[in-house]
Amino acid sequence: FDKVLGAAVIDLGALQALCWSGCPAEHRAMTWRLLLRYMPGNAERREDKMNRLRLEYADAVVHYFDKYDPEKASLYDKTMYNQIYVDLPRTNPSMPLFQNEQVQQSLHRILYVWAIRHPGTGYVQGINDLVTPFFFVFLQEVCWNGEVMKFLTPSQQQKVEADCYHCLTNMLDNAQDNYVLDSKGIQEKVFKLKRIISRLDEKLVQHLEANDVEFLQFAFRWFNCLLMREFSMECTLRLWDTYVADKSFASFHVYVCAAVLLSFSKELKAMDFQEIIFFLQKMPTEKW
């Protein structure tokens, strides 16, 4: 990583291959920015482009978020603003960091600007979870301790937000159909998951069907939140190293979900409907 990242012009193919197998924490922020095509690989162009994109985000915050007026806002704008506000307390509730008021204000700005600038999809529940790995990684790059937000300057906070916004945007470009209004993309992936499990463990599918368990009942969230509610942040970051390195991560994620489900095949075959649903909603994966 040191050699690849230290080059004047970074070999993104080589970096992609390295990141796919896991990225050291100290290199993760820069690596993710590069592989998501937010940060230029050419060192000479890097500062100018980063400053321009960060300023672009800051201007969008002033234009869309700071000037938000519920009395004058359109129905769409009010719906987006209020839905994000409602979802913030439920965002990664197991981590105290994301219950911090200052952090939630940052997330509100990032998600609202994203929703306004992406009216084709808009904000839907689940996207609030997807911004948290970026926030964690970019915040950790700046400073990390028990009271991190108290030591973050306004300038640093603005950079963290801008980087989260642009990286989230570029990552979701590769999974847009997951977040359209009818969730067509997620439904197709859930059906693909069922086909994969049918080939690999037909008896598990038969047991689920015999107990009237539909794949959509438990797998929808796995695709909507990319398993973030099932895994710890540490596990999520490792998984996302691979996803960031793979433009087709949304398709690869189907196989990750299949591996997770198959790992509990024996336990699931011994359960009835209620036990299955409860188990799959709270799988013992928090220490993975």
TrEMBL record:
Domain of life (superkingdom): Eukaryota
Domain (Rab-GAP TBC) ranges:
22-247
Q: Which SMART domains match?
A: TBC
User: A single Gene Ontology molecular function, please?
Assistant: GTPase activator activity
The record, for Pfam families, names:
RabGAP-TBC
Q: Which PANTHER family match?
A: LD44506P, TBC1 DOMAIN FAMILY MEMBER GTPASE-ACTIVATING PROTEIN
Supply the name of the protein. Rab-GAP TBC domain-containing protein
